[in-house]
Structures are given as structure tokens and as C-alpha cells.
Design a protein that fits this description.
Blueprint: E1 14-22, H1 28-33, E2 35-43, E3 49-54, H2 59-69, H3 79-88, H4 94-115
Helix pairs in contact: 3-4
Length: 116
Amino acid sequence: MDGSAKTSTSGSPTILVVGYAKLPEETSAQSLYGTLGVALEVEVDTGIIVAASCTLVLALANDFVSRLLKGVRLSDGVDEAAARIAAYYIGPSQSAIIAALKAAYSRWESYCSTAA
């Protein structure tokens, strides 16, 4: 790295991985965006999600999803993150969030396999 990479509060370099999924028709986000995006800032060395954001319309929903995902270790897989969303996000976009999360995780895996 050239030293310009973002670092977390622990000093570990981070990357941003993003995944997208189709939103259900009955959501306000669907009429605005069509798809839902999940962005994860992940520590390269540990695989820990240090920040997360998604394209949900309501700020509270976006903040809630962010808090659910923060601290999850992607190097252990995506199941814990998906289970947190399934257990605690009760809304019509739940399956889209999980699908976008899995797409972001797939990009994380690709990054790890090329960075090794």
C-alpha cells in the first residue's frame, strides 16, 4: 500500500466492500433506488467490520443496520452478520439486506484471495 489507505481507530488499514440486491416493490427505497446497497468498511488484517451503511430511506433503519453489523468478523464468514439481520431487522427489506450483505461478503472473499 502507498500509505494513503484508510485506517481504523486501531490503526489497521481498511477497505470498503459493497454489495447490491433488488428491493421489494412495497418499499420506499425501491421507488428511489431500485436496489439496496450495503457498504462495509472492513479491517484488512482482522476482517472486522468497523463501519457499515446501507441505502435504506429511514436514517434510523440505516443506523440500526450499521450497529448490528459493526464488530462482525467477516474472516469467520457471513453467517453471523446475516443471522443478526434476520433476528433483529423486522421489515420488508430484510431479505434484500441479507442478499446485499452476501454480495459484499463475496467481494471480501475475492479481495482476500487476490491480496494473499
